[in-house]
Design brief:
The complex is a heteropentamer of chains A (about 500), B (about 500), C (about 100), D (about 260) and E (about 575). Chain C is mostly helical and about 100 residues long. Helices cover about 80% and strands about 0% of the residues of chain C. Chain C contains 3 helices and no strands. Chain E is built from 22 helices and 2 strands.
Chain lengths: ~500, ~500, ~100, ~260, ~575
C-alpha cells in the first residue's frame, strides 16, 4: 500500500463527509439537487474510501494519520480492525440513511442545516471509530454531541428543544467526565495510543486505586451515550427528532459511539485481562445486565412506537458492553458483532417507524392495527428487524446472542445466560404484540394522517427502499455470518488480535 | 546591551524595530488622520487597520524567526530610555489582538451606518488599538501606565458611544475603575522606582532577583496587581464589566471583552512571571486561583441567568478571565520543565481562544441585536433562525467558550486539568468541570433559540461585511487554535517535546 | 533622608486618604477630586525619589514622569467630568450609583 | 436596551427601603474601609520607611544629567520628556487626544455662559494675548529652564477657558475642521518625526544630535498648539459645532434622547 | 450434485413463501379496498415439501453437504434417523399443504399470510431435520416455533388468540431454555456437531435445559399446557403438522444432543421415563373427557409423546437398549406422525369435504376409523408395527413393570381413539365445494399408513398387539353402549377438565402475579416519573431566564472597594508572611 496514502486515508475518510457537510450549509435552501448531489457524493466517496481501508486492513497494513495539535497532544486517526468494523457500519448506514432522509425531509424546512449537521455527525462518528488515542476519541466524541444537538432540535417544536436540551445536558456532562478521566489517565501514563491488548497492565499496584477511579469516570462518560442505566434518561427524550435522526442516533452514531468507547477503553486502554484483575469487568457486566433488563421492561410499557424502540436501544446496546465485560474472546466477538448487528436491525426498525409516521401518521403501537396490509414491505422489514432483536435465527441478532451466551459460559458467568433469556422473553414481549397488530388485526377505518405520495409503491421510494435494504442486510449478516468479510469474521479477527491469539 | 553596541547594531535594530513601532504608530497616526479628516474616517480607518494587522503579523514573524526582540527607543541607555520588547507571548497576543482588530474594523464598516457615529468611532478605536499594541509590546513600567490610561480612556469613551444613559453610567464607572486602578498601579511603580531606580522591566527583573526579597517588593506587587486585577475584572472586582460591555456598541464590546481585559491580565501575568517570581510563593498564587475559581463559577452562573445576549457574553468574559487565573497556582506549583511550559502555553492558548471567540460572539450578538431590535434571549427565536451564518458564528464561538473540542480552549482546559492533577490540586478540575457545564448551559440557552418554527432562511450569509468577520473569528478560535496550536509552543520558545508526565 | 520620608510619607497618606474618599463618597465630583488627591500622593512619592540631598541636582526622570502623570490626570478628569455632566443633563434626579 | 423603563410605585417604595438599607451598609463599610486603609497605610509607611533606610538604590539622575548635552536641549526635564522618554510623551498626547475624542463623542457642547459684561470683556481682551505670549515664552524657555510644551499648552488652554467663561461658547477656538486638525497636530507631528527618523535609519524617535534641537522644537510647538486646543476644547465639553456657535440652542442642547445606534 | 437437494429441502419452501404470501410491490395503496386485496391466490403451498420428499426418497444414506459459510457454519446430512424423519415429515407436510392450498378457506388476504407462515414453518422443520449441526437445529426450531404462532392464531377467534398467547409464551420459554442448553452444550463439548461420544460429559444443567427446552415442544407434562389449546385452535392443515411433525422434533433433538447410547445417564433416563409415564397418565384421562375431536387428538398426541419419552428415557438410562430403542422411537414417531396427521386432516374432511350421508362421508368416517385403529396399534396397522419396534426397549428395561404400564397405556389409547370416533361420528358436516385435491392427498396419506407395516415393520409385528387393542375396543364398546342408553351418567364427566388442564390452576396464579407486578411497576413508574419531573423542572428552571440584577449590591463602590482593599490586604499579608519583617 502506498505510504502516503496510508498516512492520508484515515484523515480523508473523516474529511470526505465533513467537507461536503460544510459546503451543504452554504447551499441555498431551494437548491434541492445540489444538496442531494453533495450528500450522495460525500456518502459514496466515503464508502469507496472505507472500502479501500477495509481491504488494506485485511491485508495487514497500518493506516495512520497523525496531526500534532499541541506538543504531546496528537490527533491520531488509526485504522485497525475494530475501527474498520465501526467505520464501515457507519459509512454504509450513512449512505442508506442519507437516501432515506432526503425522502423523509422532502418538503420540510431548514434542510441545508439538517444535512450539514447530518454530515458532520457522521464525520464525527467515523472520527470516533478511527480515533487512535483517548484525546482524539474525546474530541470527536464531543463533536458528535454538538453535531447531533441541532438534529435533535431540528423540528423546532417546544418538545424538540426540550428534548434536545435534555440530550445535551446528559451528553455534555458525560463528555466532561470522560474528559476528566482521559486527562487524569494521561497524567499517569503520558501520551499513549490505543493498543490492542491494552497499555495499562504494567502500571504499579499503588496506582490501581487511581486507575479504578479513572475507569469509573470514563465509564460514566461513555455510559451516558451508551445509555447505560441510570444514565439513559436522554434517549427516550430525544425521540422527538425526525426519524432519520433517531435512526442515526440509535443505530450508527451516538449510542454506538458510547458502546464503542467502552469497548475501546476495556480492550485497548486497560486491556481486558487487566480490567478483569482490577474487578472492573464485574461492575460493567452488572451494569450492562441491569440495563438490558430495565430497558426491556420500560419498552414494554411504552405505547409510542419510537419510545418503545428507544428503550429497546437502551437494552440492546448494553449487549455490547456486556460482551466487553466478559473475559474471553468469544464474548468479545459477541459484543463486537452486536455493534454491527444492533445497528442494522435498529436502523431498520426506525426507518419503518418513520415510514409509518410519514405515510400513515401512525406514531403509536396502538394505532398499528393492520399496517401490514397497508404497508406490507415496510412491515416485512420491521418484522425482520424485530425478530432479529429478539434473537430469532437466522437473523443477525441471534449470532450476537449466541456468542455472548457462549462467552458467558466460557467466562464462567452462567448467570448471564439468565439475563439473555430474560432479555429474549422481554424483547418478544414488546415486539411480538406489534407484529401481531400489524399482521393479524384488521385495518382501521381510517389512518390517523395518511399522506398520499405520487407513487405506486406503498410509500415514497426513498422511504421504502432503505428499510428493505437494511432488512436484507440483517438477514444476510445472519445467514452469511460465517462468510468472509462478514461482521462476525471481523469481530473474530479483532478478538484474535485483542487476545493476541 | 550597552549604548555603544546599540548604536553599532542600529541598522539591524531598525529593521527589527520597524514592525513593532509600526504596530503602535500606525493606528496612532490613523487616529490622528481620522480625527482630522472625519469624512474619510471609514476608508482611512480600514486602510490603517489592514496596515496595522500587517505590522502585527510582521512582528510575529520576526519573533518567530529571530526570537525575542528587545528595542531601546532613542538609542539611549536602556535604563534611561523606554524599551519595546516582543517575546513569544507578546507576539502571540499582538497577533491575536490585531487579527481581531482587523475583523472588528471590517465589521464596524457595516455596523456604524450613521456618519457621526462612525466619525466618533474610528479615531477612538484606532487609539485603543494603538494602546493595545503598545501595552503588549511595552518594556517599561511607566510607559505601561500611560498605555493603561490611554486604553482606559479610549475604551470608556468607546463604550459610551451609544450615548444612552445606561451606557454613560456604566462607562463612567468603568472610567473611574480604570483611573483608580491605574493610579494604584502607578503607586506600585513609584515604590519600585524608589527602591531600584529603574523602570525597565528587564533590568528590574534582574535587580529584584539579585536582591533579598523585601517588603517593598511585596507592597509594590500588591499595589500593581490590585490595580490590574480590578482592570482585568477578576472576581469579585468585575462589577463594572457586565454593564459596560453589555451597553457598548457591538464592535466595541468585542474589543473590550476580547482584548482590553486581556491586556490587563497580560500585565499581571508579566509581573507575576517576569518581575516578581523570586518573591512569590504558592499561597499568593493560590489566592489568585481562588478568585479565578470564583470568577468561573459566579460568572458562568450569572451568564446563565442573564436575560440579554450581550450581558450573557459579558458575564462569560468574567468567567473566562477566571479560567486564566486558575493557572497561577498551577504554574507556581510546577517546577520548570515541559509541564510548566505546557501550562504556560495552555494559558496563552486559552487567552487567545477567548479573544477570538468572544469577539466573534459579540459581533454576532450585535448583528442579532440589530436585526431583532433587541437582544432579549428569550425572544430571539426568529432572528437566530433568519441569520444562519450569525447563529453559526455564535455556535462556533460558543463551543470555544465552553471549551469543547476542537477549540483552542479545549486544549487549554485539557492541559489545565492535567496540570491540576499532576500538582495534586485536583479541586481546580472540579471548578473547571462545573464551569464548563455552566458555560455549556448558557451557550445552549442561546443556541436553542435558533431552533424554532420560524420560516426557513433563504441563504446562509445575508450580510457578508458583518457576518463574515464574526464567522471567521469564531472559526479561528475553533479550528485553527484547536487543531494547530503547536506553533504557539514554538513561538513561545518552549520546549516543544511536550510529554505530559 | 528625613525630608524624603516626610515628602514621600505624605504621599502615601494622601494616596490612602484619596482612596478612602473615592470609595466612600458617592458624588462624582468628590470622586474625581479624590482621584486627583490619590494622584498627588503618587506624585509626591515620585518626587521624593528625585530628591538627592540638598546639594545635588534633583533627578529629572521622576519630574518628567510626574509631568506626564499630571497631563494624564487632567485628561482623565476632563473626560470623567464630561461624562458626569452628560449624565446630569440627562437625568436631573441624581448621579445613579456611579 | 437603552430605554429607561418607567419605574412603578412599588419599585419606588422598594427602592426607598433599599436605599435606607444601603445607606446603613455604606456607613458600616466606610468605617471598615477606614480601618483597613489605615492599616494598609501604616504598613505602606513602614515599608516605605524601611526602603528609604536601605542603602541608596541606583538612580538614573547621574546618567540622565550626564547625557543632557547630547539631547539637543539643556533642561534635563525636557530632555527626559522629549528625548529619553519621548515615547511616553507621545503617548501622553494620545491620552489627551483620547479624552478629547471621548468628550466629542458624547455629542455637541452644552451652551456657553452668558456673554460677559464690558469690564470682563475688556480684561479678557488684555489677558488672552498676554497668555498667548506667555505660552510662546514658555515653549521657548523649556529648552534650558523649567517650562516646555505642556506648560505652554496649559497657558493656551487657560486662555480658551477664559474666553469661554467670558461668553464665547466655542472658547475662541476655530471651526470644526481647524479644531480637529489642530488637536491632532501634536500626535501627528510627533509620530511622523519618529517614523521619519525610523525611515531615515536613525531609529524611531532617535534624533540625530545635530537636528535634535530643531526637531524637538518642532514637536514642542505642535504639541503646544495641540495641548492648548485640546484643553480648551475639553473645557467646551462637546463636539465643535459645524454651524456657527451662536445658533446652538440654549439649555439642554446636549441632552440627547435618541436611541442607540444598534437599535435601528 | 444431488446433495444440493438437501439444501433445497428447506430453501425451496422459504423461496416459495414470498410468492405464496401474495405481497405486491405496487398497487393502489391509498384505496382502502384494493390496498387490502392481495394478488390472486396461487396454491404454492402445496409444493413446498416436494424437494424434501425427493431427498428422502432419492438421496443415499450418508449424503453430506457442508456449507461452512452459511449461517454459523452449516452441515447437512442424511442418516437413518433424519431420513426417516424427513420422509414422514415431508409426507405430512405435503398432505397438509394440499389441504391448506385447496381446503382452507377464509379471506384471501389471510390465505397469503397463512401460506407464507405455513411454508416458513415447513422450512424450519425440514432445516432442522437435514441439518446435522446444532445451529441448523436451533434455526429450524425457532423458525418453526415462531411461524407456528401465526398459524395457531390464524383464525383470530378468541380461543385461538388465547391459545396463541399460551403457545407463544411457552414456546419462547422453551426456545430460551434450548438456547441456553445448546450454548452450554457447545461449551461442554467444544463442537457444534456433537457425536454421542462428545456428549458424555454434559453437565447436569445442560441436560436439564435440553430436556426442559425441548420438553415444551414435546408436550412433556407439565410443560404441555399449550398443546391441547393450540393444536385444536389452529386451522386443520396447521394442526396436522403441529401434531404430526412438529412435536416430534423434540425427540430428534434429544436423540442428537443427549448421549443416548454413549453413556448411562441412569438418573436422567429414569426421570425421563417417569415423566413419560406421567404424561401418558395425565393425557389419556383428560383426553377422554374432551368434547372437541381435535382436542382429543391433541391429548392423544401428548400421550403418545409420553410413550416415546418413556422409551427414550429407558435408552438413556441403559445404553445397551439405545440402538434398538432409538430406532423404535423413530419408527414410532414416523407412524404416529402419519397417522396423527391423517386424523387431523380427516377431521377437516369430515367437517367440510362432503354432505352428510354421502358416500364420501361414509368413506371418510371409515378412513378415520382405520387411522384411529392404526394409532391405537391394532394388528395389521402401522401402529402394531411401530409398537413392535418399541418392544425390545420396553422389555429390556430394568423396571419390569414398564411393559405392564405400556400395555395399560395401549388400552387407554384405544379408549381415547374410541372416544374420538364417537365424537367425530356425531359431528355435523358443512360441506364446501372443490375438495378433490385435499381428499386425494389424504387418500395417499392413508394408503401410506396402510402400507407402513409392510414397508417398515417386520412380519411378526403385523399381528402383534391384538390383546391390548382388543381389550380397549371391548371396554370402549361397553362404555359406548352404556353411554348410548344412559347418557346422563357419563355426560357430567365430559368437559370436566377443560383443555389445557393444569392451565386452569395456573391461570389465576399467573393473573395474581401479573396484577402484583403491574402494581409494583406502576408504583415504581410513578415514583420515577415524580423524580423525573422534579429533576426536569429544576433543570428547566436553571435554563429558564431569570429576572433581577444580582450584582446591584456589588456595584456599590463601598462594597466593591471593601472587597478590593480586602483582597489587596490579603495578598500583601500573604506576600509579607514569607519574608522577615525587617529585610536583611
Amino acid at each position: 500500500m502506498n505510504n502516503s496514502l496510508a498516512t492520508l486515508l484515515p484523515g480523508l475518510i473523516v474529511l470526505s463527509s465533513m467537507v461536503p457537510g460544510a459546503m451543504i450549509f452554504l447551499v441555498r435552501e431551494e437548491s434541492h439537487l445540489l444538496r442531494t448531489v453533495l450528500n450522495l457524493f460525500g456518502a459514496v466517496l466515503k464508502l469507496l474510501l472505507v472500502g479501500v481501508m477495509v481491504w488494506a486492513v485485511w491485508q495487514g497494513n497500518e493506516l495512520e494519520s497523525r496531526l500534532v495539535i499541541a506538543p504531546g497532544l496528537e490527533l491520531v486517526l488509526h485504522a485497525d480492525a475494530l475501527s474498520v468494523l465501526f467505520a464501515t457500519l457507519s459509512t454504509v448506514l450513512w449512505l442508506i440513511t442519507t437516501i432515506y432522509a432526503i425522502g423523509y425531509l422532502e418538503h420540510s424546512p431548514n434542510r441545508s442545516r439538517f444535512f450539514g449537521f447530518f454530515s458532520l455527525c457522521v464525520s464525527a462518528t467515523v472520527g470516533i471509530a478511527l480515533a487512535g488515542n483517548l484525546l482524539t476519541f474525546v474530541i470527536f466524541y464531543e463533536i458528535l454531541t454538538l453535531a447531533t444537538y441541532p438534529l435533535v432540535a431540528h423540528r423546532g417544536t417546544p418538545e424538540a428543544t426540550r428534548g434536545a436540551k435534555i440530550y445535551l445536558a446528559y451528553t455534555l456532562t458525560g463528555g466532561l467526565l470522560l474528559l476528566v478521566g482521559a486527562v487524569w489517565l494521561r497524567t499517569l501514563t503520558g501520551p499513549v495510543d490505543f493498543v490492542e491488548g491494552g497499555v495499562l497492565s504494567g502500571m504499579p499496584p499503588e496506582l490501581h486505586g487511581q486507575l479504578i477511579a479513572i475507569f469509573a469516570l470514563l465509564l460514566a462518560g461513555l455510559g451516558v451515550k451508551a445509555a447505560i442505566v441510570p444514565l439513559h434518561g436522554w434517549l427516550p427524550q430525544s425521540m422527538v427528532a425526525p426519524a432519520p435522526v433517531s435512526s442515526l442516533l440509535h443505530a450508527v452514531a451516538v449510542v454506538k459511539a458510547g458502546a464503542f468507547g467502552i469497548v475501546r477503553v476495556v480492550y485497548d486502554v486497560y486491556g481486558v485481562t487487566f480490567a478483569s484483575e482490577l474487578g472492573l469487568l464485574a461492575v460493567l457486566s452488572v451494569l450492562a445486565s441491569v440495563t438490558i433488563v430495565y430497558g426491556s421492561l420500560m419498552a414494554m410499557t411504552q405505547d409510542g412506537l419510537k419510545t418503545r424502540l428507544a428503550y429497546s436501544t437502551v437494552s440492546q446496546v448494553s449487549y455490547i458492553a456486556l460482551g466487553a465485560s466478559l473475559l474471553g474472546p468469544v464474548a468479545t466477538i459477541g459484543g463486537l458483532v452486536h455493534l454491527v448487528h444492533q445497528g442494522i436491525m435498529k436502523i431498520t426498525l426506525f426507518f419503518c417507524a418513520g415510514n409509518y409516521a410519514e405515510t400513515l401518521g401512525v406514531h403509536k403501537v396502538s394505532q398499528m392495527d393492520g399496517v401490514g396490509r397497508r404497508m406490507p414491505w415496510t412491515t416485512l422489514a420491521f418484522t425482520v428487524g424485530a425478530l432479529g432483536m429478539i434473537g430469532i435465527p437466522p437473523i443477525a441478532g441471534f449470532v450476537s446472542k449466541w456468542y455472548l451466551g457462549l462467552g458467558a459460559v466460557e467466562a464462567e458467568q452462567h448467570w448471564v445466560l439468565l439475563i439473555l433469556a430474560a432479555s429474549t422473553m422481554l424483547n418478544a414481549g414488546y415486539f411480538l404484540p406489534i407484529l401481531y397488530r400489524a399482521w393479524f388485526r384488521p385495518l382501521p377505518e381510517a389512518w390517523p394522517k395518511e399522506h398520499v405520495f405520487d407513487t405506486r409503491f406503498e410509500t415514497m421510494g426513498a422511504l421504502l427502499w432503505p428499510p428493505v435494504i437494511t432488512a436484507v442486510l440483517c438477514l444476510v449478516a445472519g445467514l452469511l455470518a460465517a462468510a468472509p468479510f462478514s461482521p462476525l469474521e471481523w469481530a473474530q479477527l479483532i478478538a484474535k488480535r485483542e487476545y493476541g491469539l | 546591551m550597552t549604548p555603544e553596541s546599540a548604536f553599532d547594531s542600529a541598522a539591524l535594530d531598525n529593521l527589527l524595530a520597524a514592525p513593532l513601532v509600526l504596530a503602535i504608530m500606525l493606528p496612532l497616526l490613523g487616529s490622528a488622520l481620522t480625527t482630522a479628516l472625519p469624512r474619510l474616517a471609514p476608508l482611512l480607518g480600514t486602510l490603517i487597520a489592514v496596515g496595522t494587522a500587517g505590522a502585527a503579523i510582521w512582528t510575529t514573524v520576526a519573533v518567530w524567526t529571530r526570537g525575542p526582540i528587545h528595542l531601546v527607543l532613542g538609542g539611549w541607555d536602556p535604563s534611561l530610555a523606554i524599551a519595546l520588547r516582543a517575546d513569544g507571548m507578546a507576539a502571540a497576543l499582538v497577533l491575536m489582538a490585531n487579527l481581531v482588530g482587523l475583523a472588528i474594523s471590517v465589521y464596524a464598516l457595516g455596523y456604524f451606518r450613521a456618519p457621526d457615529r462612525a466619525q466618533s468611532f474610528w479615531p477612538l478605536w484606532l487609539l485603543l488599538w494603538a494602546a493595545l499594541n503598545g501595552l503588549f509590546l511595552a518594556g517599561d513600567l511607566f510607559n505601561l501606565y500611560v498605555m493603561l490610561e490611554l486604553l482606559g480612556l479610549a475604551a470608556a469613551a468607546l463604550g459610551a458611544l451609544t450615548g444612552s444613559r445606561d451606557a454613560i453610567t456604566a462607562n463612567l464607572r468603568y472610567l473611574l475603575v480604570g483611573l483608580v486602578a491605574s493610579l494604584t498601579y502607578l503607586f506600585g511603580v513609584a515604590l519600585l522606582y524608589t527602591a531600584y531606580g529603574t523602570l525597565d522591566i528587564g533590568l528590574l527583573s534582574s535587580a529584584i532577583a539579585a536582591d533579598e526579597p523585601s517588603p517593598l517588593d511585596a507592597a509594590a506587587l500588591t499595589l500593581m496587581v490590585a490595580g490590574l486585577a480590578m482592570k482585568s475584572a477578576l472576581f469579585p472586582l468585575h462589577f463594572w464589566l457586565p454593564p459596560a460591555h453589555a451597553s457598548a456598541p457591538a464592535p466595541v464590546s468585542a474589543a473590550l471583552s476580547a482584548l482590553v481585559v486581556k491586556a490587563a491580565f497580560y500585565l499581571i501575568l508579566r509581573l507575576w512571571l517576569d518581575l516578581f517570581e523570586p518573591i512569590l510563593d504558592l499561597s499568593a498564587s493560590m489566592l489568585l486561583g481562588l478568585l479565578g475559581a470564583g470568577a468561573v463559577l459566579w460568572g458562568s452562573w450569572q451568564a446563565l441567568r442573564a436575560e440579554r445576549l450581550k450581558l450573557l457574553a459579558a458575564y462569560s468574559t468574567v468567567a473566562q478571565i477566571g479560567y486564566l487565573f486558575l493557572f497561577f497556582p498551577l504554574l507556581a506549583a510546577t517546577p520548570p520543565g515541559p509541564s510548566r511550559d505546557n501550562l504556560l502555553a495552555a494559558l496563552l492558548l486559552m487567552a487567545l481562544t477567548h479573544g477570538f471567540a468572544k469577539a466573534g460572539f459579540f459581533m454576532a450578538a450585535g448583528l442579532v441585536q440589530t436585526n431583532a431590535g433587541h437582544d432579549r434571549i428569550d425572544d430571539l427565536g426568529g432572528t437566530a433562525q433568519r441569520l444562519p451564518a450569525t447563529t453559526f458564528a455564535i455556535a462556533l464561538a460558543g463551543s470555544a467558550l465552553i471549551g469543547l473540542p476542537p477549540s483552542g480552549s479545549f486544549i487549554g482546559k485539557w492541559l489545565l486539568m492535567q496540570g491540576a492533577i499532576e500538582t495534586g490540586q485536583w479541586w481546580w478540575v472540579v471548578v473547571g468541570t462545573l464551569g464548563t457545564l455552566l458555560s455549556a448551559a448558557y451557550i445552549f440557552r442561546v443556541l436553542s433559540r435558533a431552533f424554532g418554527l420560524e420560516p426557513t432562511p433563504i441563504k446562509f450569509v445575508t450580510d457578508a461585511r458583518a457576518e463574515v468577520p464574526a464567522l471567521m473569528l469564531s472559526l479561528v478560535s475553533v479550528a485553527v487554535l484547536g487543531l494547530a496550536s503547536g506553533p504557539l509552543w514554538t513561538l513561545l520558545g518552549l520546549n516543544a517535546s511536550g510529554g505530559g508526565a | 533622608m528625613g525630608a524624603q520620608f516626610l515628602f514621600g510619607g505624605v504621599g502615601v497618606v494622601l494616596f490612602v486618604l484619596g482612596l478612602w474618599s473615592f470609595l466612600v463618597h458617592a458624588p462624582l465630583l468628590r470622586k474625581v477630586i479624590a482621584l486627583n488627591i490619590m494622584g498627588s500622593g503618587v506624585f509626591h512619592v515620585l518626587i521624593a525619589v528625585a530628591y538627592r540631598g540638598d546639594t545635588a541636582p534633583p533627578d529629572p526622570v521622576p519630574h518628567a514622569l510626574v509631568l506626564t502623570g499630571i497631563v494624564v490626570a487632567v485628561s482623565a478628569t476632563a473626560l470623567a467630568l464630561t461624562f458626569g455632566g452628560r449624565l446630569m443633563d440627562m437625568d436631573k434626579d441624581g448621579t445613579d450609583d456611579a | 436596551m437603552t430605554k429607561d423603563p418607567g419605574r412603578s410605585g412599588a419599585d419606588a417604595r422598594n427602592d426607598a427601603a433599599a436605599a435606607a438599607r444601603a445607606a446603613e451598609r455604606d456607613r458600616d463599610l466606610s468605617l471598615l474601609l477606614a480601618v483597613l486603609l489605615t492599616l494598609i497605610g501604616i504598613a505602606l509607611l513602614g515599608i516605605y520607611w524601611l526602603a528609604l533606610n536601605e542603602a541608596e538604590g541606583p538612580r538614573l539622575a547621574d546618567l540622565a544629567l550626564g547625557l543632557v548635552p547630547r539631547t539637543g536641549v539643556d533642561n534635563p526635564v525636557t530632555a527626559v520628556l522629549l528625548n529619553y522618554r519621548a515615547y511616553d510623551t507621545l503617548m501622553e498626547l494620545a491620552v489627551l487626544l483620547a479624552a478629547l475624542l471621548g468628550i466629542w463623542s458624547l455629542g455637541p457642547a452644552p451652551a456657553g455662559f452668558q456673554r460677559s459684561g464690558r469690564a470682563l470683556a475688556a480684561m479678557v481682551s488684555w489677558v488672552v494675548p498676554l497668555l498667548i505670549l506667555a505660552a510662546g515664552y514658555m515653549l521657548w524657555v523649556g529648552g534650558y529652564a523649567p517650562g516646555g510644551a505642556f506648560q505652554a499648552g496649559a497657558l493656551l488652554g487657560a486662555a480658551g477657558v477664559i474666553v469661554r467663561l467670558a461668553g464665547d461658547p466655542s472658547a475662541g477656538l476655530p471651526g470644526e475642521h481647524a479644531q480637529r486638525a489642530l488637536s491632532v497636530l501634536g500626535v501627528l507631528v510627533f509620530a511622523l518625526v519618529g517614523l521619519a527618523l525610523l525611515w531615515l535609519g536613525d531609529g524611531f524617535l532617535t534624533y540625530p544630535p545635530s537636528l535634535a534641537k530643531w526637531l524637538i522644537l518642532l514637536i514642542e510647538s505642535a504639541a503646544t498648539l495641540a495641548i492648548g486646543v485640546a484643553l480648551a476644547a475639553a473645557y467646551v465639553g462637546g463636539r465643535p459645532a459645524t454651524a456657527p456657535a451662536s445658533t446652538l440652542a440654549s439649555g439642554k442642547a446636549g441632552a440627547r434622547t435618541e436611541p442607540t445606534g444598534e437599535g435601528n | 450434485m444431488t446433495h444440493w437437494l438437501l439444501l433445497a429441502t428447506w430453501v425451496w419452501p422459504l423461496l416459495l413463501a414470498l410468492p405464496a404470501s401474495g405481497l405486491r410491490l405496487r398497487g393502489d395503496w391509498s384505496n382502502r379496498e384494493t390496498a387490502a386485496a392481495p394478488a390472486r391466490h396461487v396454491p404454492w403451498v402445496a409444493l413446498g415439501a416436494l424437494p424434501a420428499l425427493a431427498a428422502a426418497a432419492l438421496l443415499p444414506l450418508g449424503t453430506e453437504l457442508a456449507l461452512p459459510w452459511l449461517f454459523l457454519g452449516t452441515f447437512m446430512g442424511l442418516d437413518e434417523t433424519s431420513r426417516m424423519y424427513l420422509a414422514f415429515t415431508s409426507l405430512v407436510w405435503l398432505a397438509a399443504g394440499a389441504y391448506a392450498a385447496f381446503g382452507e378457506r377464509g379471506s384471501s388476504a389471510n390465505r397469503g399470510r397463512f401460506d407464507a407462515l405455513f411454508l416458513s414453518a415447513m422450512a424450519g422443520n425440514l432445516w432442522l431435520i437435514v441439518g446435522q449441526d446444532l445451529f441448523s437445529f436451533y434455526v429450524g426450531f425457532a423458525m418453526m416455533g415462531i411461524a407456528s404462532y401465526g398459524l395457531v392464531i390464524h383464525d383470530g377467534t378468541v380461543p385461538a388468540l388465547r391459545a396463541g398467547k399460551v403457545y407463544l409464551v411457552m414456546a419462547l420459554l422453551g426456545e430460551v431454555a434450548l438456547f441456553a442448553g445448546l450454548v452450554l452444550l457447545t461449551s461442554d463439548t467444544g463442537t457444534t456437531r456433537p457425536s454421542p461420544v462428545d456428549l458424555t460429559d454434559l453437565s447436569p444443567l445442560t441436560i436439564g435445559l435440553l430436556l426442559a427446552g425441548l420438553g415444551v415442544k414435546a408436550g412433556m407434562v407439565p410443560l404441555h399446557l399449550w398443546l391441547p389449546l393450540a393444536h385444536p385452535a389452529a386451522p386443520v392443515a396447521a394442526s396436522a403438522v403441529l401434531s404430526g411433525t412438529m412435536i416430534k422434533v423434540a425427540l430428534l433433538g434429544w436423540i442428537r444432543f443427549l448421549p443416548v447410547g454413549a453413556v448411562a445417564l441412569t438418573d436422567w433416563g429414569e426421570a425421563l421415563t417417569l415423566i413419560g409415564l406421567a404424561t401418558m397418565a395425565l393425557a389419556v384421562p383428560v383426553g377422554l373427557v374432551q368434547r372437541d375431536p381435535k382436542t382429543i387428538l391433541a391429548y392423544s398426541s401428548i400421550a403418545k409423546m409420553g410413550l416415546l419419552m418413556l422409551v427414550l428415557g429407558l435408552a438413556l438410562a441403559q445404553p445397551d437398549l439405545a440402538p434398538l430403542g432409538v430406532a423404535g422411537v423413530v419408527v414410532y414417531a414416523a407412524q404416529h406422525g402419519l397417522a396423527k396427521g391423517g386424523l387431523f386432516l380427516g377431521v377437516g374432511m369430515r367437517k367440510h369435504a362432503a354432505a352428510r350421508g354421502s358416500i364420501t362421508q361414509a368413506l371418510i368416517l371409515a378412513a378415520l376409523v382405520f387411522l384411529a385403529l392404526a394409532l391405537a396399534g391394532a394388528p395389521l396397522t402401522s401402529g402394531a408395527a411401530a409398537k413392535y419396534a418399541l418392544k425390545p426397549a420396553v422389555e429390556g428395561a430394568r423396571w419390569a413393570w414398564i411393559s405392564t404400564a405400556v400395555a395399560i397405556a395401549s388400552v387407554a389409547t384405544t379408549l381415547l381413539m374410541a372416544r374420538f370416533i364417537w365424537v367425530i361420528s356425531r359431528t355435523e358436516p358443512h360441506d364446501e365445494p372443490a375438495w378433490v385435491w385435499p381428499v386425494a392427498a389424504w387418500s395417499v396419506l392413508i394408503a401410506l399408513v396402510a402400507l407402513f407395516p409392510f414397508a417398515v415393520g417386520e412380519p411378526e409385528s403385523w399381528l402383534s398387539n391384538a390383546d391390548t387393542v382388543g381389550v380397549g375396543v371391548g371396554i370402549a364398546a361397553v362404555v359406548a353402549l352404556f353411554a348410548a342408553q344412559r347418557p346422563h351418567v357419563l355426560a357430567p364427566l365430559i368437559g370436566l377438565v377443560p383443555p389445557g388442564d393444569l392451565l386452569a390452576l395456573i391461570g389465576p396464579l399467573l393473573a395474581a402475579l401479573q396484577q402484583m407486578g403491574r402494581h409494583l411497576l406502576d408504583d415504581l413508574g410513578l415514583l420515577w416519573r415524580h423524580l423525573d419531573a422534579t429533576a426536569t423542572a429544576l433543570f428547566m428552571r436553571l435554563f429558564g431566564s431569570a429576572g433581577g440584577d444580582s450584582e446591584r449590591g456589588l456595584r456599590q463602590w463601598p462594597v466593591a472597594g471593601a472587597l478590593w482593599v480586602g483582597i489587596a490586604a490579603a495578598l500583601l499579608i500573604l506576600l509579607l508572611a514569607q519574608q522577615p519583617l525587617v529585610a536583611g
